[in-house]
């Protein structure tokens, strides 16, 4: 068995188990394909994952460390000054928990009884006490990312809106506007010299989290029901369907 892919997951970690929680990423999985979501959360059969993006994780950690310096000093980060944002990195007693994977921000959704959770990257606050969700992103391409206008980036926007929803359910006044600190590595520099240069842009996103409650109710119905139909645009469902067909044909030839 692969060290990176262990299935099925233990029953305690599946829906109905003591350790199961509905993470932000699972909500996005449901939006992408209810069938894959059901197999993951009911049967512990998660999709095979790629290897971790260690460079992206390093950028995340460096940004957290950098913003934490200004958090401790109660000063603005240069990016906040550059973009004219009258806010500072937020100080909160639960910041460490809220940023930790497998802990994060959580709440119980009253209508469904589902425990929903998600780990934020950062939180900024203005003088009025309004909080702003911040998410770090990193990539590498010839042109810097300065806006989120691709269909696949909709998942980033949903991610931020779930975080906003979670923090409001933890008693915070949270703006509809959040910010992506987007770092684009420059692959066309003259030399590497042991370092990777980045263009860094702060990209605002103003959205609405009012879709979350309705989707949670859909998810509850899904989890209580039988295996959903295949996702129409799901590559994983397509792979399984074609694989089954090829295996059946091959077995037929062997008989």
UniProtKB/TrEMBL annotation:
InterPro entries for the chain: PDDEXK-like_dom_sf (IPR011604), PDDEXK_AddAB-type (IPR038726)
Pfam families membership: PDDEXK_1 (PF12705)
PD-(D/E)XK endonuclease-like domain boundaries: 21-242
Annotated protein name in UniProt: PD-(D/E)XK endonuclease-like domain-containing protein
Protein's organism: Candidatus Uhrbacteria bacterium CG10_big_fil_rev_8_21_14_0_10_50_16
Record lineage: Bacteria, Candidatus Uhriibacteriota
């Amino acid at each position: 068995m692969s060290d990176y892919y262990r299935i099925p997951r233990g029953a305690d970690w599946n829906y109905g188990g003591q350790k199961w929680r509905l993470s932000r990423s699972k909500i996005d999985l449901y939006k992408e394909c209810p069938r894959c979501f059901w197999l993951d959360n009911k049967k512990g059969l998660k999709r095979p994952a790629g290897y971790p993006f260690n460079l992206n994780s390093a950028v995340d950690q460096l940004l957290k460390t950098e913003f934490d310096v200004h958090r401790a000093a109660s000063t603005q980060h240069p990016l906040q000054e550059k973009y004219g944002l009258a806010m500072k990195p937020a100080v909160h007693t639960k910041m460490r928990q809220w940023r930790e994977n497998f802990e994060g921000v959580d709440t119980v959704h009253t209508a469904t009884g589902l425990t929903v959770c998600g780990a934020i990257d950062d939180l900024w606050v203005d003088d009025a006490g309004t909080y702003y969700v911040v998410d770090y992103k990193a990539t590498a391409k010839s042109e810097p990312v300065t806006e989120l206008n691709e269909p696949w980036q909709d998942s980033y926007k949903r991610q931020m809106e779930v975080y906003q929803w979670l923090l409001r359910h933890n008693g915070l006044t949270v703006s509809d506007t959040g910010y992506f600190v987007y770092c684009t590595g420059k692959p066309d520099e003259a030399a590497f010299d042991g370092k990777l240069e980045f263009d860094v842009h702060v990209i605002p996103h103003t959205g609405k989290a009012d879709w979350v409650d309705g989707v949670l109710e859909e998810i509850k119905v899904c989890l209580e029901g039988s295996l959903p139909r295949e996702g129409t645009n799901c590559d994983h469902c397509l792979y399984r369907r074609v694989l089954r067909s090829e295996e059946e044909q091959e077995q037929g030839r062997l008989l």
